Automatic annotation (TrEMBL), chain A:
Short name of any one Pfam family annotated for the protein: BPD_transp_1
TM segment ranges: 21-44, 79-100, 112-133, 165-184, 205-233, 269-289
Organism from which the protein derives: Paractinoplanes deccanensis
Membrane topology summary: Multi-pass membrane protein
Location in or out of the cell: Cell membrane
PROSITE patterns: ABC_TM1
Signal peptide start-end: none
Keyword set includes Membrane: yes
Protein name in the entry: Sugar ABC transporter permease
Superkingdom assignment: Bacteria
Family: Belongs to the binding-protein-dependent transport system permease family.
InterPro entries: ABC_transporter_permease (IPR051393), MetI-like (IPR000515), MetI-like_sf (IPR035906)
UniProt keyword terms in alphabetical order: Cell membrane, Membrane, Transmembrane, Transmembrane helix, Transport
From TrEMBL, chain B:
InterPro entries given in the database record: MetI-like, MetI-like_sf
Ranges of compositional bias, category Low complexity: 1-15
Ranges of residues in domain ABC transmembrane type-1: 92-290
Top-level taxon of the source organism: Bacteria
Keywords from the named record: Cell membrane, Membrane, Transmembrane, Transmembrane helix, Transport
Family in the record: Belongs to the binding-protein-dependent transport system permease family.
Location of region: Disordered: 1-22
Gene3D superfamilies from the UniProt entry: MetI-like
Membrane protein topology class: Multi-pass membrane protein
UniProt cross-references to CDD domains, sorted A to Z: TM_PBP2
Name of the molecule in the record: Sugar ABC transporter permease
Cellular localisation: Cell membrane
Main location class: membrane
Length: 304, 305
């Protein structure tokens, strides 16, 4: 380890090093640290947009946060979405990755096709699914009707609006799948050979070899997907809140959507900044819990 | 860890293409047939919305919801009509320009910063690099309002600058990616050049940069895609301006509302589908050229965990 022994560093080299990283330092001071301090102080103020002046407001914004039922409601919707979406995404991505890893022909072709939804911009995904999910004439319900199931009113029924966003997330699951696929490629093949000699079937092999060996990737994906799920904005906004004359079901009010509305529709900056900090704290706690659980189960290779 | 040698890691025979797991046998067994059928089923599911989109963009009004994948009546006029009703060319031009600037700025600045972290030894280097990685944890909404105010107070509202200005200062994941690449280059390469009298900048510009082209392309393509898709940013910074100044995603959202019956439109969904196809095609084109870079980039993302 390099300790701070002044003699160890070449002065010229150190100065050059700082110069090279100076763009990041500058950006960090303005757009991260500066912005965080700014945002924190806005959250404790009443912000006047006309004059760009803040008046101290103590805990008013945070108190308003607790009193506004739509904050709690949107948080609940978001949590519901995350609990539904993350496990489904993990399972589908892992399932597809295992299939791709086992198929002998055409793996490259399938991977390419499965990745196409990931390349589709969120607005296009939203405008396609807006029509596919139409409760009466949409393709999804038409297909369900063909096999004798009357599909739900996806975009109207409060119970189904969140699952319809989950469906869109699942369509774009290939990013997670590729990460799993890369992890599966790193599992030493001889482990399986030894296991089959010992008479372990595919299911046992999955739980005793595959899953432990790729636990690092599972852990990473769960954390990344959870953070992303809490910040879902594009799809929910485009499907339900884009058009202000539309009456959207309250179940579709996601946290990031409400935050955006407060910030850039109502220009309620203090309130919105407080919402952002609440989200940050929630995510920190969630991630800390996940890391704690993860450390118990995740297997790291020797190099770590 | 991650990509080390320039050409090998990104060649056609990328590690991802080699079968892992059980030993290879190239015969059609019952298992392989079932597996292939299953994968073809998923192919249909993943492709269906895109094929549906193309079909819907070619249907006359009122037939969009027949859900036929081959239109009963082909209507290429949709493309002409929507062209006259929406400033599509402006949107595409704005999006291409913004995405290109965003990608160019962030890939160059991140490379410079990454080289600083990879090659030089200076006090606090590891702490600062830890800080770089830590910024990835910060939800964008925390800095969304202050960033808006920074652009407002510096007079950049109503310009493109807020959509790529912060890219001049590097971005955490890209710095990580490029640093990882630079660390894989043999140090002797640089020491030899130093002895020959090269400046530090020349080490970066003449040696490190040319060698890092593969991972540079990953960074560029990733950011191009991210900037192209950036809907929320455009909504915050461009929505108040004139419609022809929109980016393509904001334009599609505008079209969704314009033709929506709940907002008084005529339910001309075929036009929305044309616009949606138009915002998607450049990304599919990008993918057809740079597929291995996208896949390698995503895989690297996982390996940093």
């Amino acid at each position: 380890m390099e300790r701070l022994k002044p003699r160890k560093y070449n002065r010229r080299e150190a100065i050059a090093g700082y110069l090279f990283i100076s763009p990041w330092i500058l950006g960090f001071l303005i757009f991260t640290l500066g912005a965080m301090i700014y945002s924190l102080s806005i959250s404790f103020s009443r912000f006047n947009l006309a004059t760009n002046k803040m008046r101290p407001a103590g805990l008013d914004n945070y108190r308003a946060l607790l009193e506004d039922p739509r904050v709690a409601g949107s948080l609940k919707n978001t949590l519901f979405f995350a609990i539904l979406a993350v496990p489904l995404e993990i399972m589908l991505a892992l399932f597809l990755a295992i299939l791709l890893n086992r198929v002998r022909r055409g793996a490259g072709f399938f991977r390419t096709v499965y990745y196409l939804p990931k390349m589709t911009p969120a607005v296009a995904t939203a405008s396609i699914f807006l029509l596919l999910l139409n409760g009466n004439t949409g393709a999804i319900n038409s297909a369900l009707r063909a096999i004798g199931i009357e599909g739900p009113q996806w975009l109207v029924d409060p119970a189904w609006v969140r699952p319809s966003i989950v469906l869109m997330a699942l369509w774009g699951v290939s990013g997670t799948m590729v990460i799993f696929l890369a992890a599966l490629k790193n599992v030493p093949r001889d482990l399986y050979e030894v296991a089959s000699l010992d008479g372990a079937g595919p299911v046992r092999q999955f739980f005793t070899i595959t899953l432990p060996m790729i636990s690092g990737a599972v852990f990473f994906n769960v954390i990344i997907l959870t953070i992303a799920a809490f910040q879902v904005f594009d799809q929910a906004y485009l499907l339900f809140w884009r058009d202000q004359t539309n009456v959207a079901p309250e179940a579709s009010l996601f946290y990031a959507v409400y935050l955006f509305q407060q910030a850039f529709r109502q220009f309620n900056f203090g309130f919105a900044a407080a919402m952002a900090w609440l989200l940050f704290v929630i995510l920190l706690i969630l991630t800390a819990i996940q890391v704690k659980i993860g450390n118990r189960y995740v297997y790291y290779e020797g190099e770590r | 860890m991650a990509i080390t040698a320039p050409p090998a890691a990104l060649s056609q025979a990328a590690p991802l293409d080699e079968p892992g797991g059980p030993p290879p046998r190239r015969r059609w067994t019952v298992g392989q047939v079932l597996l292939t059928v299953l994968l073809l089923g998923f192919t249909a599911l993943f492709l269906y919305p895109l094929v549906w989109l193309i079909a819907a963009s070619l249907k006359p009004a009122g037939q969009v919801f027949d859900n036929a994948l081959i239109p009963h009546t082909w209507r290429f006029d949709n493309y002409v009509e929507v062209w006259n009703q929406l400033p599509l060319l402006h949107w595409i031009f704005n999006s291409v320009a913004i995405a290109f600037l965003a990608a160019a700025f962030v890939s160059v600045s991140s490379s410079i910063v990454a080289f600083g972290f990879a090659y030089f030894r200076f006090p606090g280097r590891n702490i600062l690099f830890g800080l770089v990685l830590a910024t990835m944890m910060l939800p964008a909404s925390v800095t969304m309002i202050p960033t808006y105010l920074i652009w407002k107070q510096t007079g950049f509202l109503g310009t493109w600058v807020p959509l790529f200005g912060a890219n001049l200062f590097g971005s955490a994941f890209y710095i990580f990616l490029q640093r990882q690449f630079f660390l894989g280059l043999p140090r002797e390469l640089f020491e030899a050049a130093r002895i020959d009298g090269s400046s530090y900048w020349q080490l970066f510009w003449r040696i490190a940069m040319p060698l890092s082209i593969p991972s540079f392309i990953i960074v560029f393509l990733f950011e191009f895609q991210a900037a192209w898709n950036n809907f929320q940013g455009a909504l915050i910074y461009l929505n108040a301006g004139s419609v022809s100044d929109f980016t393509a995603p904001l334009g599609v959202a505008y079209a969704m509302t314009k033709y929506s019956p709940t907002a008084g439109g005529q339910a001309d969904y075929q036009y929305v589908m044309v616009a949606s196809l138009l915002v998607t095609l450049p990304m599919l084109l990008l993918f057809s050229f740079g597929q291995r870079y996208f896949i390698e980039g995503v895989a690297t993302q996982g390996r940093k965990g």
